[in-house]
Amino acid sequence: MTAISAPAQAQQYNAPAERGFEPVIRGFNVDEVRRIAPGAELNFDVYGTPGGRVYLQIAGAARNLQLDETEPGVYEGVYTIGSRDRITATSAVTANMRVGNQVTTGVLRESLQTGVGRHEAPRRGDLAAVPRIERFDVRGVDDLRAGNELVFMLRGTPGAKVDMNIAGTRGVFFLPEVRPGEYEGSYVIRRGDRIERATPVTANLRVGGRVATVKLGKPLQLVGAPPPPPREARYCSNCATVEAINVIEVKGDGNYIGTIGGGVLGALAGNQVGGGNGRTAAQIAGALGGAYVGRNIDRQNDKQTRHFEVVIRFANGGTQTVQYANDPGLRVGEKVKINDGTLTRDN
């Protein structure tokens, strides 16, 4: 199975329909090294059917390499060249993917060393085949954000191998042949991608040693698509807005519970006097009298202090008052958060 190499990061590339339970290799990449020598590390990536086991055979290597599935359908592994290895820049690398009792194979067609180029050799009879591409299309999306899926379709010479590269992403991936001469696959946009509406996309159709190349002639994002909806703000249960700041003058030891307490006691006393309309008047008189009594509690103490009350209002309409002995430095209208009875600015 023909494969193309390029520096790659983990990406998800899915065919719209698998043929039964047959495993599929959709991408096979290597990070080329500057020099093939002991100690050099060859980083391989294989993309395909999830839940399988992938082994690499490198011509001239003293051992095989098993790749780990780092996320569904993405297999990665590193081969460190040793002194006993006889690996060259053009050593053939074969990937075997096993899922259940089914096995599929992919062959890396890039060199292992930078600057060497492809080492694909034409097979017997391939020189007579002239690959052609009749159509290359995409089913675009309204929004190019991560998680959305782009579906690509290509029509051309049957029995070929089709790989595709999207600028702004890392890696080269395959379009499986779903019907004779028809190749189709989908690409799921990932967070690290830098894909825009007019991002270039290139497809290569390979028959042996010959290649036909085409660039996508339409945008990836639908024309006239509405802008993406704004993300809903997450509800913050401890976020609020400063609604009022009250300065309270207090005589005595700074505890103004005497005045408030006296007022409450007076209101309660007044509540017991009279009935009907006279009851309200009695409540008012009782409250005033109680406040007077409360003030007399601290009459003999000439000390006078100030307290600050900060009234905050939450998004659900509820309010809460937070008391400070000193000026909290807040202003009406500021956004704050409350934690354990303490207010902090919500920057």
Description:
It is a single chain. The chain has 347 residues and is mainly beta. It folds into three domains: 2-108, Immunoglobulin-like, CATH 2.60.40; 126-215, Immunoglobulin-like, CATH 2.60.40; 236-254 and 303-347, OB fold (Dihydrolipoamide Acetyltransferase, E2P), CATH 2.40.50. It is 10% helix and 40% strand. The chain is built from two helices and 22 strands. The longest helix has 21 residues, at 277-297. It is elongated, with a radius of gyration of 37 Å.
Written as H for each helix and E for each strand, in order along the chain, the element string is: EEEEEEEEEEEEEEEEEEHHEEEE
Number of domains: 3
DSSP helix fraction: 10-25%
What portion of residues belong to β-strands?
A: 35-45%
Question: What is the first-to-last residue Cα distance?
Answer: 56 Å
CATH-defined superfamily of the largest domain: Macroglobulin (MG2) domain
Question: Can you count the helices?
Answer: 2
- Give me the CATH fold name of the largest domain: Immunoglobulin-like
Rg calc? 37 Å
Name given to the CATH architecture of the largest domain: Sandwich
The pLDDT mean sits at 76
CATH class of the largest domain: Mainly Beta
